[in-house]
Specification:
Elements (H helix, E strand, L loop, with lengths): L2 H27 L3 H30 L5 H24 L3
Helix pairs in contact: 1-2, 1-3, 2-3
């Protein structure tokens, strides 16, 4: 995969994850106070991870052609954590 194709795929993931975080935040508003506070704490943590992923994506954009793939591997790890965390938060409201 080229660096540009990876960047485009990563940007699509950012949009997807942001939409899911917004969904989780909306669902948390209807929960009991304790559940809402717990969900908001997890959502805030996931937003920090997503911001970290955005930063790494910018680093990938600035990286040389022969170095970006190492950065991409660490970004993939961030995406795995964000994805799993979102699923956990949303599962609380089913």
């Amino acid at each position: 995969m080229s660096k540009e194709a990876y960047r485009q795929r990563a940007e699509a993931k950012i949009e997807e994850y942001q939409a899911k975080l917004n969904e989780a935040r909306a669902k948390a508003k209807g929960a009991t106070a304790g559940a809402r506070l717990e969900a908001e704490k997890h959502i805030a943590d996931l937003e920090r991870k997503l911001d970290s992923g955005k930063k790494r994506l910018r680093e990938i954009g600035d990286a040389a052609e022969d170095a970006w793939e190492d950065l991409a591997k660490s970004l993939d790890d961030v995406w795995d954590g964000v994805s799993g965390g979102i699923k956990n938060v949303l599962a609380r409201f089913k």
